[in-house]
Design brief:
It is a single chain. This protein is α/β, with parallel strands linked by helices. Helices cover 52% and strands 10% of the residues. It has a five-stranded parallel beta sheet, with helices on both faces. The protein has a four-stranded mixed beta sheet with strand order 1-2-3-4. Helix 7 (213-225) packs antiparallel against helix 8 (229-237) and helix 13 (343-359) crosses helix 14 (366-376). The longest helix has 23 residues, at 63-85. The structure holds adenosine-5'-diphosphate (ADP) and magnesium ion.
Length: 479
Amino acid sequence: MNALPLPLEHNLQPDLQPALDAWNACLHLIQEHVSSLSFKTWFQPITPTKLDGASLTVRVPSQFFYDWLEEHYNPLLQSTLVTVLGHEAKLFYVVEAEDSSTIALQTSLFDQDSAKPTAQKEFAPHVSLRSELLPAVQHNLNPRYTFENFIKGDCNQLARAAALAVANNPGGTSFNPLVIYAGTGLGKTHLMHALGNHALASGKAKRAAYVSSEKFTIDFVDAIQSDTVNDFSQYYRSMDLLVVDDIQFFSGKEKTQDNFFHTFNTLYQAGKQIVLSSDVPPKELKGLDERLISRFQCGLTADIQPPDLETRIAILQKKSEDNNLELSPHITDFIAANVTTNIRELEGCLISLLARASLENREINLDLAKDVLRVVVSEVRTPLTIEKIQHSVCEHFNIPEDLLRAKTRKQEIVEARQAAMYLAKELTSSSLKTIGLHFGGRDHSTVIHAYQTIEDRMRIDSSFKQQIVQLRRLLESLK
Ligand code: ADP
Ligand code: MG
């Protein structure tokens, strides 16, 4: 009569039979203590390779797999091994490393201090099981969002630079986690996709995924209902780069937060990169567990501010180019002056402009732009430019305009020039550099000096202050 088949058929050499027998005995015991899904996921992929006295060596497919076993099943493995092999039992792991070299890890079953694995390179034949066993990644990254089409401005400089640094070296900078916060429509999602796309394309991250916190929450609830929380967790914890958008929606969802907390820790401890976005700075997040908030703060938090006028113009120019649309500077200035808080709205205006022009068969001109904007903003304004400010100031002080740009240091010219610089700084969103350029290419420090001089003088000279306030009112009425 044939012997009963072993529960697992391994094509191993005969001297590996004792290891196989010992491991099969362990599997019988383990099976009674874990769900069938966990058994399939975490124990069936383990291959016994050697039994030396009471020391059993097994092969696991990845470092992640090993970490998971250590974190979740160590007590179960300990008691099982002791039952099967006695109190001298030791378990050695052989891990298929990512770079295809094989490293071996030892876990002493009794000594907690030595639970940290030590590399023992002499072990193990090389079999790469990693890619088969890790779940396939659906990265959900939108290829439309790149660094190339993300316009740089003072408003997003830090966030963009940090995102680029992280994309070039995920997990390898101190920006972990990278948290980007900003109001709506200011480019958080765009920047995060750009980061993920870049890291994947350059091969710096092999496993990268973008997920909104809402999707994470929905999938987690589904996983609970279908008893697949382990698979769910394993999926996210196997990433090299995990990008989670709009974490404010985790608010009040305690179980999801708890799962995310462990995901965060697993990734963080393994040196993997986490990137998060939120509509407020982490410490202002309401309804989020304190331990999560403090984790979020251990990397870099970078904000994106509403775009200044120049960035808005640059964005409009870029987006119209992308749409093969040639907009005159009049029109871009006009839209940029009116749509001030949100880049999504800025894009919306451009799209409406295109749609109206083609549907109504109209030429794209300032009138059409005004029509479009009337729908979007309550009060349409024409942009207040530095030129207009210069013009009004010169009229007021009764001096020729070109002297503002000339080198002359005559007292009344200097005064008018400084007043115009002050008002340009107060009433437009132009940078100091741009303001300086409009005044005969002067340096930004000259603009700062002018601004301070005017402020100081207004404090001590009430009739001068009166003039500036009047000018300001006049200019604001022109907007
Ligand atoms: P948020 O996630 O902050 O609400 P999004 O990333 O969705 O904002 O941005 C809204 C729209 O504005 C997107 O179409 C995006 O491409 C565009 N956008 C935002 N910032 C920039 C930028 N700096 N350059 C180019 N487009 C931008
Ligand atoms: Mg977004």
